[in-house]
Amino acid sequence: MNMSASVPSPAPARRAPRLDDYVRIIGPGEVDELRALARRLAGRSVKMVNSTAVGGGVAEILNRLVPLLQEVGVPTRWDVITGGDEFFQITKAFHNALHGGPFQGGPEWFATFLATNEENRRRLEFSEDFIVVHDPQPVALVVERDRTPAHWIWRCHIDLSHPNSEVWEFLRPYVEQYDAALFSSPAFTQGLPIPQYLFFPTIDPLADKNRELDAKFIRSVLERFQIDPQRPILTQVSRFDRLKDPVGVIRAYRMVKKYHDCQLVLAGGAASDDPEGSEVLREVEEAAAGDPDIHVLNLPPWSAREINALQRASTIVIQKSIREGFGLTVTEALWKKKPVVASAVGGIPSQVIHKVTGMLVHSVEGCAYQLRYLLANPDFARQLGRNGHEHVKENFLITRNLRRYLLLFLILLNQR
Ligand code: UDP
Questions:
Q1: What H or E segment, with its residue span, contains residue 235?
Q2: How many alpha carbons fall within 13 Å on the CB side of residue 17?
Q3: What are 236's strand-pairing partners?
Q4: Which of 129, 132, 156, 250 has the smallest set of CB atoms within 10 Å of its CB?
């Protein structure tokens, strides 16, 4: 196993992309449409609330969505709730349970959860017209709703198709107090008395994570991590989380390795709201021990360009999650025209249309089989990548997300 070389400090900041910069990707018509929709919201403001400023898909989306809302003239503030280690251990247990796992907590966990929400409710101000609360961690802030004139929206990014009933029944009364709930897949919607909307998560094609890179930089990243550019590179980018099944990826790679002299890159990092990360990283390092062609890279949060380079350098991108919200790493790989082998869970089947934009799998063996197939059929693999790029362009770019939010705000305004 090859452990992470040190990553240099953050790259110098570039000018943040402006809406006009997207014209060359989506065309002038769509950009004009965004401005026209935003004009109808003149004078209205938005607050986004979530539980981490870095790490994971939600922070990734908010980092770009907030400046774009600002630019179209909708003042938007992003607040991050605070909490102690115990709170984040509890919300991680909720997260796992909502994804269908068991729940071993007791009533005191619910009490701690509510106490932390209450502290945040007191600390934050809610003076905006639209309050968008992301995921379960801050869900109980909504008890403030009746004291504000705002429209309250719950944006759920996680797979709620088989939630643990104890946790879901605890959260449900809070969710029901919102004006609307947004889900990443039709399969995640619940029997709720409030309107539910389908909101695909999206990526920013101009962010450091996704923009074009020069070949020289990509080569330098491979060199820094001692990855051989001459041999196939299989990559999974994910937080070190058991639900991303990194050890399953290693098992699949070992099956492929018998037939193809390939390398495996497992690139990840920690999110500040995920206390299990270091334990899972240890498990991964143990599983990878003794194989110099497995590169376990524990990257700092400012590694967007490195991740972009690793994805672009990959022969195939894997996302072998056991459960998944949407899987932005899949979107990122498809945008880069990469053939993707990914589990048919969560929002992944909305992105990976089997044999058209990638390959869907249901097991370690299936993953290994599809990896072998794509390594042996590079023309087909390239076609999947091209199709995937078009699919993302049509459905999963940040400008689409901005449009959906603007339309939702207008709908809610008109309803009241
Ligand atoms: N990511 C990252 N560094 C890491 C691991 C992941 O920047 O070490 C990014 C990844 O590129 C993607 C997001 O975090 O943009 C993960 O989103 P996804 O929906 O795939 O999974 P989540 O972490 O939200 O479960």
A1: strand 233-237
A2: 22
A3: 266
A4: 129
Q: Coil, strand or helix: which one is 49? A: strand
Pocket test residue of 307, 319, 322, 396 for ligand 1, highest count of atoms within 8 A of CB? 307
Beta pairing, strands 76-80 & 263-268: unpaired
What is the set of domains in the chain, with CATH numbers?
27-202+397-415 (3.40.50.2000), 215-395 (3.40.50.2000)
Q: Please indicate whether residue 385, judged by its CB atom, sits closer than 6 Å to ligand 1.
A: no
Q: Indicate if ligand 1 lies below 6 Å from the C-beta of 60.
A: yes
Alpha helices in 107-238 (DSSP H): 107-123, 165-175, 215-224
Closest CA to 158 of 145, 142, 147, 171: 171
Q: Is the pTM of this model over 0.85?
A: yes
Contact 100, 162 (CB under 8 A): yes
Q: Which residues pair with 47 in a beta bridge?
A: 77, 131
The rounded distance, in Å, linking the Cα atoms of 200 and 285 is: 33
Q: Is pLDDT above 70 for 4? A: no
Tokens representing 301 are: 């949060």
Cα 29 to ligand 1 centre (Å): 31
Residue 133 and residue 151: Cα distance in Å, rounded? 11
pLDDT tens-place string over residues 312-344: 999 999 999 998 889 999 999 999 999 999 999
Could you tell me the distance, in angstroms and rounded to a whole number, from the CA of residue 326 to the centre of ligand 1?
11
Q: Is 59 in the pocket of ligand 1 (CB under 6 A)?
A: no
